[in-house]
């Protein structure tokens, strides 16, 4: 009768039926059915046609740009996030707690706000854009560099927030042992501390990457959106939708989902492997 | 109250926690379920309290089948292993919880609740700690508060899961006497779970030795000491 | 936030004047801290300052006046309405899902956790696209709904759905680790003391999770009010009707109405700062009642 009955665990705690009902109906309505609609549409179009639409130069250029820029930004955030987390946990300086709190700003600040703010800053006549152009001849806004900066901004907190608690839990004894065995500080950090942080670093990297690949709001203002050059994949989906080319939009969305999941799977595998390495130690 | 356990078995997925066990607990007895971890003693206690559902068999309270009876209706005073005190409530509120949870028709008035809580605080010899929070108490004090909270609902029996497990040796000895005293003054049928044979032997009228989901032996402490019936019991007692 | 100069940095106590075995040399510490703070200043502080500077470029009166315009007020009202619907619904979902995951043993728990996290790995634009495909006028379901006078896409329900999709995991993600840590013994104790299910939930469970719940609601509210990509796709961007504050920012910006765009942006930035402040206060004052893993 009720399929939930089959799963119902024997427990005296009440509320299983109610909680399962709320969870399943909302999950279905908000997440599963909409995603199902996308998959259904993709199935109706068929793999051959999907592929043909993805293989168009403008689409491949957009997909390549989205993933390349996301990788660049996530790599930067990997290194910078580690440095920032280390400084926040290990060093003492005035205003540390304030800065710790400020790290979450990209989570709280709406992407459209970040987008126009970064554009205003880095435009050729902006507060940072003007000197960069004048002194280094570097154009940031309306180029791929601008996209990198926007993606670094939105992905900034991920690595910090996943690595920070792990650094907090490292017992200094481990580092002391390494020192008593004659290892230099650099060796200790490289051979002892870094391997302990690796799984968390990878998690943070994966989160930052996933966020950057799909990011739209903060990028479209600063990107310039020149087809084939600075046009990101999510924007191309929006453009296809505005042309009522639903199949075209579905094709790009499917490509993004497929590549994202492949990347996340890869990172997951690396993580499992690195955990095994640390577990054996 | 007389408790009759009749062929109770329990499986969790594929693991068998209890093979069918039967046991008769006379009214007013102080019974220890003794065994190593994984022997099924806690599962049996939780079935009595209605916190687990038996896979088969039935439990009778004074001859009444309790199968399907809700936890709330059993009126079994249950003391949890780590006490499960409500951390966001004061000691007073903790003890008063069961009285305040009663349907309006049988809920005592505020003054009566306060009177009963204070009497229980006297009984556990901790008068004047009603305003404190559980985090401000020592382990032994928490255990006594948990006992008072269970007693407040005027239970028909007391069920205690490793009541002294988390305490150091000295406090443990004191509290054993406390439990004995409370049992003797209330006359409640009391079942407690322990893995400590000294505790079981010193405190209980009747000891139930369990292993691997089965009852190995039931008897008075002296009997079990004198005539261990199985190799397991012998080994467990000499360990 | 300025680049910290060396004398502001922590000086080790005299008896440990030499570098300890578990710390980096002093010059490394100073250099690393300086670099990190400099990058943060450029990356975080500068954009915030830019928003305020652009908004107040022609004085605060002009900025305030732009927010008082009819369409701007409609956008603010719409954003508040959408958040007021989406956030409580997600809170209810989060509590229900966390209850299922943390209080019972059952097969399918891991699958449910994965499904809850799914929205994190889907682009907001793709989320919007999914809602359009399911409820758009050309789809079977959408067509039927429109025919019965209940349009979803290019209307408020679609915006609410897209917003809920994006913020779906927030509350559950805060509650699951905390409630796992808390176990279920207190709930069981309440039942043995005779409490009904609702009484147990309201007097035992809810007080134990209230700060984590508030934390999750704060985060999901900030995200809901600021959501852009998903809403841009489903809203149709009808000025005064389906344009939320972020959408309004885009439209004003594209029309070169800089002060109006940045004033609206400043308002949302203020919301972000308030959210950060409250969140930080929660972390400082109630760290013990947020799960150890609750920090984002």
Automatic annotation (TrEMBL), chain A:
The keyword RNA-binding does not apply. GO terms for cellular component: plasma membrane. CDD domains: TM_PBP2. GO terms for molecular function: ABC-type sulfate transporter activity. Gene3D superfamilies: MetI-like. InterPro entries: CysT_permease, MetI-like, MetI-like_sf, Sulph_transpt2. Pfam families: BPD_transp_1. It is found in: Cell membrane. Residues 63-267 form the ABC transmembrane type-1 domain. The complex is composed of two ATP-binding proteins (CysA), two transmembrane proteins (CysT and CysW) and a solute-binding protein (CysP). It is a multi-pass membrane protein. Belongs to the binding-protein-dependent transport system permease family. CysTW subfamily. Signal peptide: none annotated. PROSITE patterns: ABC_TM1. Keywords: Membrane, Sulfate transport, Transmembrane, Transmembrane helix, Transport. Its main location: membrane. The chain crosses the membrane at residues 16-40, 61-87, 107-128, 140-160, 192-210, 217-237, 249-270. Part of the ABC transporter complex (TC 3.A.1.6.1) involved in sulfate/thiosulfate import. This is Sulfate transport system permease protein CysT.
Automatic annotation (TrEMBL), chain B:
Residues 3-237 form the ABC transporter domain. It comes from the Bacteria. Its EC number is 3.6.3.25. One of its GO terms (cellular component) is ATP-binding cassette (ABC) transporter complex. The keyword Hydrolase applies. One of its GO terms (biological process) is quaternary ammonium group transport. It is an enzyme of class 3 (hydrolase). GO terms for molecular function: ABC-type sulfate transporter activity; ATP binding; ATP hydrolysis activity. Keywords: ATP-binding, Hydrolase, Nucleotide-binding, Sulfate transport, Translocase, Transport. It holds the Pfam family ABC_tran. This is Sulfate ABC transporter, ATP-binding protein. It comes from Rubellimicrobium thermophilum DSM 16684.
From TrEMBL, chain C:
It is found in: Cell membrane. GO terms for molecular function: ABC-type sulfate transporter activity. It is a multi-pass membrane protein. Its main location: membrane. CDD domains: TM_PBP2. The chain crosses the membrane at residues 30-53, 74-101, 121-145, 152-172, 212-235, 256-278. One of its GO terms (cellular component) is plasma membrane. Keywords: Membrane, Sulfate transport, Transmembrane, Transmembrane helix, Transport. Residues 76-277 form the ABC transmembrane type-1 domain. It holds the Pfam family BPD_transp_1. Coiled coil: none annotated. InterPro entries: CysW_permease (IPR011866), MetI-like (IPR000515), MetI-like_sf (IPR035906), Sulph_transpt2 (IPR005667). Part of the ABC transporter complex CysAWTP (TC 3.A.1.6.1) involved in sulfate/thiosulfate import. Probably responsible for the translocation of the substrate across the membrane. The complex is composed of two ATP-binding proteins (CysA), two transmembrane proteins (CysT and CysW) and a solute-binding protein (CysP). This is Sulfate ABC transporter, permease protein CysW. It comes from Rubellimicrobium thermophilum DSM 16684.
């Amino acid at each position: 009768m009720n399929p939930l009955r089959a799963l119902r665990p024997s427990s005296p705690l009440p509320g299983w039926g109610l909680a399962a009902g709320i969870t399943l109906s909302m999950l279905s309505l908000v997440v599963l059915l909409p995603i199902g609609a996308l998959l259904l549409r993709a199935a109706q179009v068929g793999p051959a046609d999907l592929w043909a639409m993805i293989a168009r130069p403008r689409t491949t250029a957009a997909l390549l740009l989205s993933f390349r820029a996301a990788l660049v930004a996530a790599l930067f955030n990997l290194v910078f996030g580690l440095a920032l987390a280390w400084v926040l946990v290990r060093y003492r300086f005035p205003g540390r707690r304030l800065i710790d709190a400020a790290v979450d700003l990209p989570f709280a600040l709406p992407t459209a706000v970040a987008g126009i703010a970064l554009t205003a800053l880095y435009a050729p006549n902006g507060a940072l854009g003007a000197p960069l152009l004048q002194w280094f001849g570097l154009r940031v806004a309306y180029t791929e560099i601008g996209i990198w900066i926007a993606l670094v901004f939105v992905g900034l907190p991920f690595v910090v927030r996943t690595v920070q608690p792990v650094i907090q839990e490292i017992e200094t004894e481990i580092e002391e042992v390494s020192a008593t065995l004659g290892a230099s500080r650099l060796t200790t950090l490289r051979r002892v501390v870094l391997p302990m942080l690796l799984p968390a670093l990878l998690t943070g990297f994966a989160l930052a990457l996933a966020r950057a690949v799909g990011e739209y709001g903060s990028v479209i203002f600063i990107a310039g959106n020149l087809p084939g050059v600075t046009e990101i994949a999510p924007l191309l989906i929006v453009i296809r939708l505005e042309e009522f080319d639903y199949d075209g939009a579905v094709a790009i969305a499917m490509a993004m989902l497929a590549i994202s999941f492949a990347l996340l799977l890869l990172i997951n595998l690396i993580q499992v492997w690195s955990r095994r390495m640390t577990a054996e130690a | 109250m007389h408790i009759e356990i009749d062929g109770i078995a329990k499986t969790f997925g594929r693991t068998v926690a209890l093979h069918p066990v039967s046991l008769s607990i006379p009214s007013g007895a102080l019974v220890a379920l003794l065994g190593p971890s994984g022997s099924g003693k806690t599962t049996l206690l939780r079935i009595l309290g209605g916190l687990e559902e038996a896979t088969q068999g039935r439990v009778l309270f004074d001859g009444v089948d309790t199968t399907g009876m809700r936890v709330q209706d059993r009126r079994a005073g249950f003391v949890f292993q780590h006490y499960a005190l409500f951390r966001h409530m004061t000691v007073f509120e903790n003890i008063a919880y069961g009285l305040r949870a009663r349907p309006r028709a049988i809920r005592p008035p505020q003054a009566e609740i306060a009177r009963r809580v204070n009497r229980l605080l006297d009984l556990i010899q901790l008068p004047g700690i009603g305003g404190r929070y559980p985090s401000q108490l020592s382990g032994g004090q928490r255990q006594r508060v948990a006992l008072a909270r269970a007693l407040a609902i005027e239970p028909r029996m007391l069920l205690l899961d490793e009541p002294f497990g988390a305490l150091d040796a000295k406090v443990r000895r004191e509290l054993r006497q406390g439990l004995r005293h409370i049992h003797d003054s209330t006359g409640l049928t009391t079942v407690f779970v322990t893995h400590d044979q000294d505790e079981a032997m010193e405190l209980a009228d009747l000891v139930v030795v369990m292993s691997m989901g089965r009852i190995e032996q039931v008897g008075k402490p002296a009997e079990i000491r004198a005539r261990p019936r199985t190799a397991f019991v012998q080994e467990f007692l000499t360990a | 936030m300025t680049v910290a100069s060396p004398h502001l940095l922590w000086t080790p106590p005299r008896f440990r004047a030499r570098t300890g075995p578990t710390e980096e040399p002093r010059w490394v510490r100073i250099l690393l801290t300086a670099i990190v703070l400099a990058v943060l200043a450029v990356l975080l502080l500068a954009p915030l300052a830019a928003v305020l500077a652009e908004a107040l470029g022609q004085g605060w009166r002009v900025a305030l006046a732009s927010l008082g315009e009819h369409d701007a007020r409609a956008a603010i009202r719409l954003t508040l309405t959408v958040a007021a619907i989406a956030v409580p619904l997600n809170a209810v979902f989060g509590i229900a899902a966390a209850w299922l995951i943390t209080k019972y043993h059952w097969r399918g728990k891991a699958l449910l956790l994965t499904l809850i996290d799914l929205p994190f790995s889907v682009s907001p634009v793709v989320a919007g696209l999914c809602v359009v495909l399911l409820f758009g006028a050309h789809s079977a379901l959408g067509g039927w709904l429109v025919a019965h006078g209940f349009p979803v896409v290019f209307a408020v329900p679609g915006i609410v759905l897209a917003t809920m999709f994006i913020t779906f995991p927030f509350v559950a993600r805060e509650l699951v680790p905390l409630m796992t840590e808390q176990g279920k013994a207190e709930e069981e104790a309440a039942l043995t003391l005779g409490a009904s299910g609702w009484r147990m939930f309201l007097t035992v469970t809810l007080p134990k999770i209230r700060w984590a719940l508030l934390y999750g609601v704060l985060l999901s509210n900030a995200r809901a009010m600021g959501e852009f990509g998903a809403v841009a796709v489903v809203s149709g961007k009808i000025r005064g009707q389906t344009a939320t504050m972020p959408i309004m920012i885009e439209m004003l910006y594209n029309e070169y109405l800089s002060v109006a765009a940045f004033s609206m942006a400043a308002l949302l930035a203020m919301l972000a700062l308030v959210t950060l402040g409250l969140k930080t206060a929660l972390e400082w004052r109630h760290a013990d009642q947020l799960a150890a893993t609750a920090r984002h």
